[in-house]
Amino acid sequence: ACLDRIDALNGRVNAFLYVDREGALAVAADVDARRAAGEELHRLAGVPIALKDNMVTRGIPTTCASKILGGWRPPYDATVVETLKAARLPIVGKTNMDEFAMGSSTEHSAFGPTGNPWDLTRIPGGSGGGSAAAVSAFMVPLALGSDTGGSIRQPGAVTGTVGVKPTYGAVSRYGLVAMASSLDQIGPVARTVADAAALQELIGGWDLRDSTSLREPVPALLDATRAVHGAGTVEGLRVGVVRELSGEGYQPEVLAAFRATVERLRGAGAEIVEVSCPSFDYALAAYYLIMPAEASSNLARFDGMRYGIRVEPSEGTVTAERVMAATREAGFGDEVKRRIILGTHVLSAGYYDAYYGSAQKVRTLIQRDFDRVFADVDVLVSPTAPTTAFKFGDKISDPMAMYLNDIATIPANLAGVPAMSVPNAVADDGLPVGFQVIAPARRDEKMYEVAQLVA
Ligand code: GLN
Description:
Blueprint: H1 2-13, E1 16-19, H2 21-36, E2 49-52, H3 79-86, E3 91-95, H4 129-136, E4 142-146, H5 153-159, E5 162-165, E6 186-190, H6 193-203, H7 221-227, E7 238-242, H8 252-267, E8 271-275, H9 283-298, H10 320-331, H11 334-347, H12 353-374, E9 379-383, H13 399-403, H14 410-415, E10 419-426, E11 432-438, H15 444-454
Parallel strand pairs: 2-3, 2-4, 7-8, 7-9
Antiparallel strand pairs: 1-3, 4-6, 5-6, 5-10, 9-11, 10-11
Family: Belongs to the amidase family. GatA subfamily.
Pfam families: Amidase
InterPro entries: Amidase, Amidase_CS, Amidase_dom, AS_sf, GatA
């Protein structure tokens, strides 16, 4: 059914860059046979899933939506892919994204943008717009995304799906093509909070091959979503509304939906506390220094020798350096080049203290703001994105306007805390709005519990 739905819709939605029909059907048939034989399988066995195209899949193209990786078929699987295969989830394909996960609309994909299933003239968010659109359009019930500054949550908000960025280190990043390693995190895209919880429980856990992965047991996330079906779970719950994330710069419909949900929580018995995190005002600026700095270093590996395309200079001698330059010139899109140049600049001697060094200090202040408020509240809440889905072309020529989409999602990445977006309401313009729940590090179960309350 999923494959038929993809066949029917993908021409218009462009959520998938690659569909592995035979591979997915083989896993599904194997699951049927094992179930028929009475074998006990994982609860998600047989549930089709899609992967953002920056997770490496053995023998299956992995492009990061960039021309530079043209023709590359990875020789190994990411840890999350190994885990999904072991639990026998059919992997139906790879989803569209902004090139190398840089963007908030999928318009930076080298293979054309993805349409928002709610209105195909609008963006599905980014960078993981393909995964969000695939779930939103019922092409698959589950997908994985990666979130460096909001790329799972903001697409979730504008497509009416659930998007989760787990605690940094909760899910292995081995085999995720790195963008900004200290911020990147793989997480679930789903239709319900419980589905997302079941998926994170499966993919979470320590991995020897990721030095930043947390060495602790995966919390009982699915149980956390079930607990709230009973009475009394709201009692004593303290919910912080972050002043800096719910005022200026947000579309009125988005704020109205957010406030209505906060009132619903209050009505259910939660205590609502207004909190202030003054350094969040500098989070966007710090992120757009740290992220390009790390990306400029991570993307140095695309040199025309190791992966994907190789372009020789059109004239003159062929030297390694000139092949690298010609390959990167032809292979990378404008946004990727912009960030590499910006990142290299902020890391250069003489500018390091002024830019990268200051940004790291701001990062520490943001972590302290979180520590301070989490001493007083269980979770923080905010709108996920400042606006509903905007039209194609609206922000593509203005990088600053595009970057401003991330104001509410970036603080969680800078501090490593878990955050998720749940569909909250449909705004007056007929488009979905997302509600963000942020929890302290390694308290993902608390985040799921509160998300289930508002879902
Ligand atoms: N929109 C943000 C950016 O362009 C987020 C990217 C991400 O989370 N991968 O950097």
